[in-house]
Amino acid sequence: MTRPAIWTIGYEGVTQAALIPTLKDSEVVLLAEIRYLPLSRRPGFSKPSLTAAAEEAGISYRHFKQLGTPAEGRSAARRGDHAGLERSYAGQLELPEALAQMAELRTLSGEKRVALLCYERSAGECHRSLLHAAAFHDFERIDLEPALRG
Fold this sequence. Notes:
Elements: E1 5-10, H1 16-25, E2 30-33, H2 47-56, E3 60-63, H3 71-78, H4 82-93, H5 96-111, E4 114-118, H6 127-135, E5 140-144
Parallel strand pairs: 1-4, 1-5, 2-3, 2-4
């Protein structure tokens, strides 16, 4: 039996014009937004713009707010405190709403190609890796890295 897979992607240092083709080339059909707040000062990465671009490319978009990092975890990540990020995010993943969204995302990922989206380029420095460990430990993790902007 083939092991299921989950894709991850971060938009740090890239443009929307690089991110969307990377998803298309990997045959991703659902972009799972796992930022708690789907906002960005970077053009093209706030929810409305990203949704429109993904859907125009034939990729569905869903926001899984409860799988995002709470404020204290985001603050820890900005300080480079990975242990603080891990503690905060572990608490988030224990909430009933997060457990329900993890179960839904796991089901979807077993049926179609799903990419988890967040900001950090490297999944190892992001809560994407923590979510993978918590909910997708039996899935292969494929980290996509779009070309950096010039």
